[in-house]
Amino acid sequence: MSDRRADRLAALTSALTANHLDGLLLSGLPNIRYLTGFSGSNALALVTPKQVYLITDFRYKTQLADEVGHHASVVIEPQSLWTGLWRVMGSLPQMDVAGFESAHLLHRDFQRLLDAGARWQWRPTTDLVETLRERKDAGELALITAAAAVADRALGRTLPQLAAGMTELQIAGILEKMLRDEGSEGFPFPSIVASGARAALPHARSSRKVVERGELLLLDFGAEVGGYCADITRTVVIGTATGEQREIYAIVREANELASSGVRAGMRGRDADAIARSYIERQGYGEAFGHSLGHGLGLEVHEAPRLARTADAPLVPNSVVTIEPGIYRAGWGGIRIEDDVHLGPSGPEMLTHFTRELAEVA
Amino acid sequence: MSDRRADRLAALTSALTANHLDGLLLSGLPNIRYLTGFSGSNALALVTPKQVYLITDFRYKTQLADEVGHHASVVIEPQSLWTGLWRVMGSLPQMDVAGFESAHLLHRDFQRLLDAGARWQWRPTTDLVETLRERKDAGELALITAAAAVADRALGRTLPQLAAGMTELQIAGILEKMLRDEGSEGFPFPSIVASGARAALPHARSSRKVVERGELLLLDFGAEVGGYCADITRTVVIGTATGEQREIYAIVREANELASSGVRAGMRGRDADAIARSYIERQGYGEAFGHSLGHGLGLEVHEAPRLARTADAPLVPNSVVTIEPGIYRAGWGGIRIEDDVHLGPSGPEMLTHFTRELAEVA
Description:
The structure is a homodimer of 362-residue chains. Chain A is an alpha/beta fold. Chain A has helices at residues 2-18, 29-36, 61-67, 81-90, 107-114, 128-134, 138-158, 168-181, 243-262, 269-282, and strands at 23-26, 43-47, 52-56, 73-76, 97-101, 121-125, 192-195, 216-225, 228-238, 294-296, 303-307, 320-323, 326-329, 333-336, 339-344, 347-350, 360-361. In chain A, 35% of the residues lie in helices and 23% in strands. Chains A and B meet through helix 5 and helix 8 of A and helix 5 and helix 8 of B.
């Protein structure tokens, strides 16, 4: 990890120079973790061309040695993180113009910059660290791959336990227990277990609804290893699939496979999205695929890049993205099949390996 | 629910008038849920003395009728929520000065108010809705009580399943499955399952560490029903407790019982904190109780009020708070016992009922 964190800092330092900044205040926790290794939930970081300062509270004292080591100068601040920040900044003679993260600073805290921090000039910045995070290094890729394997195994152990008559919440419980047993450190987002007509809701959570024989059951969930996320969706049928369920499933599966095998670094996000979308449109279900094809994956379960109709940016090499086409029909249900794909130098590499054959369970 | 949401709106309208505001932009999702019932993850709301406007995207169309009904005028915005907001505000002739939530608006979005929203005057506000949320009504209290009962039952079903040799993650999996089986809609925060020396870390998460015979095992977790949270901690011994474990456990238990039975609406937060803290100090462990006594509980698992050394505000009637004293010793472990208490008109009412007897499990 060490050398990679040094590389990240060097890249960020170049960005500071290009932006005429003497320093950069980081308030986004995933960005702080990326640069320092710190995984706690209360911290600020100040990056200068010479040093990274991490300001946190006493609760994290024990974990700092393990996580951060010599990659940052650590300040444990008994009162407010901001008091610690002013002290650090006041000790730096070459600090005049400082950037802050416009997308990760609350107005309340921005006001602190203008009041207690008024002796420095503040400039809003966007995506300086996020841009670096888009391109995964070997260590990051290994962690996402491990998380994807946890998700695959948990799903494999869950499906044989399912039966008509269970509630969605009970099924979520079984799935989440298997995720823990397989070593998931957390749940990157609330598990979606949605059955029958509820599978048509693009942002269902799990509910008390009882799953009935013949219904579609959509499972969309994450796993976390070393802070890195995987995100997978499979849709199964409880009992025996109807002809219509099979037919629509086959379309979603083909859209997933076309996009998973066709996506490339260098392609614009919108062109990746179009691989799946144009196929679904040709099958007559264009209106029923109401969301975008996918998103980046890393320390956060939604990060850059976007694979969407409005995404003009080219996908960068070594990014990791989800491919998740779906078809939803109000009242009938929905089918989504989601995999995680690494955009490697020689083409896309699947990180999730769970079968895309339609499963009829229970 | 209907009449209560109308009461909340009336109270907020009074606050608008007192603050000379024609309207209030809400960007904090729990505050939006409190006023409109909407439980989704992407919305803005505008409150005026006459009406509440809820602006969200198409993904939530289906759930809006159930959740929001006639309590807000709903705007489904295909592009950006902000476009919807400008359109709504532009249609209101008496809109001139508008408040926004300083603690729930990112700088990036504050910049939108100054740019696209420049035809209105914007005033930062703090805690206008949070203050209302502190005092729970009967419906809210019923939901927190239900969540506390889910937590109690899940813990009761978990302890008999535990054994030395399991990892903390496996134990978290068992506990979380029981929470789901008992009907928890989600996990308000990442479950803490911390054993041995790790129980001394005030913000441990669950890890791959194997739990050994003779160790303390601390379980701190939440449950959610109807959007409302419970939060409970018990510490058990795997195997047979030592004399020292029993002795320190008894001190924490007595501190919990003194504070749970002694806390009252009208008392300052610092005086509630002092009930437990002064007892622990008299036993010689003052330095080992390094956090505050508790916090409010409701739509969020941490909300007003605070029960802490620096909390001068009086506790309001019908608030719900946690009482969670602890003693932590580096290398040895830690003991925390946490309950949820309603500050009723005739005194404190426990909402969590799990025994505080020291359990020796496995």
